[in-house]
Design goal:
Layout: E1 5-12, E2 16-25, E3 32-42, H1 45-52, H2 56-77, E4 80-85, H3 87-91, H4 95-106, E5 110-112, H5 115-126, E6 135-141, E7 146-152, E8 155-162, H6 166-172, H7 180-193, E9 204-208, H8 210-219, E10 228-231, H9 232-242, H10 247-254, H11 258-262, H12 264-277, E11 282-285, H13 290-301
Length: 313
């Protein structure tokens, strides 16, 4: 095994900006990523893009300030840093100009990841959690898009990026808690997006990304870490609670940020609708995902870590 290299990955998501600092080394099964430190801050770029079509000056200033703070931490604690942006900045009309300015002012290239590259990196980050054999589904649902990857064991066979995420869907839900009709129409919107989903019959589902992590954390015993298996019956019970009380009341009880509570209902609806689409009755939520994959790809591929892989054969 090679000597570990410490790499920081900053992920500009559609709900949250995260940093993961990890040690990565070579192994017979590919890069081995060991988490050292992680942080995240909710900034809701996806909701801003959904309502305004752009990031805007105020949100851009918040993003730049958060990135500057994370870069100070990354440069102090790691050997190198990579920065990637996902669906909100893919969609924003001012996204390209903003990323060009950020790259110049921060002194680090900020890369927009395509939907296919985001899915591929998510699989790289989560692959050690998957079963070694069998048809499986990896769901990576964020604020503005949801990446689906079908695998045969640890090998990806098909993927798709769906244009639905908790922030985008949440911007269209009415009421707090969401009204029943609005909730139903949200499910219909997800169902339409699933026309893009890869065709297959997975026997097990795994989920990562903000949507899954948020509602799994709400139900997690304090101090518990690792994966969490949730059945459709358990998801239904969580949904009933989320639809019964306003976000601020749930936030006081759970200790969560009220803004984060508000994106739980659409996030849960996305995951549950995908499970139903594939005829699956449970999902295992795992901590590893995109940022772990960014670290592994930067270790293996250097400056080309963010570029699209060749299509599946």
């Amino acid at each position: 095994m090679s000597k570990p290299v410490r790499i920081a990955a900053i992920d500009i998501g559609s709900d949250t900006v995260h940093i993961l600092i990890a040690d990565v080394s070579d192994s017979p099964d590919g890069p081995l990523v060991s988490r050292v430190k992680q942080r995240g801050e909710l900034i809701e770029l996806g909701r801003q893009v959904a309502t305004k079509g752009q990031i805007g000056k105020r949100a851009a200033r918040r993003l730049e300030a958060r990135l500057a703070n994370y870069l100070k931490l990354a440069r102090r604690r790691s050997d190198r840093v990579v920065i990637g942006a996902t669906e909100a900045l893919r969609r924003a009309s001012d996204g390209p100009a903003l990323l060009e300015r950020l790259s110049s002012e921060l002194g680090e290239p900020v890369r927009i990841l395509s939907g296919s590259r985001e899915a591929a990196l998510g699989l790289v980050g989560a692959v050690r959690r998957l079963d070694p054999v069998g048809s499986q589904l990896l769901i990576d649902s964020g604020g503005a898009s949801t990446e689906l990857t079908l695998t045969d064991g640890h090998v990806g066979v098909a993927s798709a990026s769906l244009p639905v995420g908790a922030a985008l869907l949440g911007a269209d839900l009415r009421g707090d808690p969401p009204q029943a009709l609005s909730w139903a129409l949200g499910g219909a919107r997800i169902g339409a997006a699933l026309s893009l989903a890869p065709i297959g019959k997975p026997t097990r589902a795994w989920a990562t990304g903000g949507s899954a992590h948020n509602f799994a954390d709400l139900e997690r015993t304090k101090g518990r870490s690792g994966d969490r298996r949730l059945t459709m019956a358990e998801l239904s019970a969580i949904a009933a609670r989320l639809l019964a009380e306003p976000a601020r009341k749930l936030a006081r009880r759970s200790g969560e940020d009220p803004d984060r509570i508000q994106i739980l209902p659409p996030g849960l609806l996305i995951i549950a609708t995908i499970l139903a689409h594939y005829g699956l009755d449970a999902v295992t939520v795992i901590p590893e995902g995109l940022r772990d994959g960014m670290v592994a790809a930067a270790f293996e591929q250097g400056e080309g870590w963010w570029q699209d892989p060749p299509p599946y054969s």
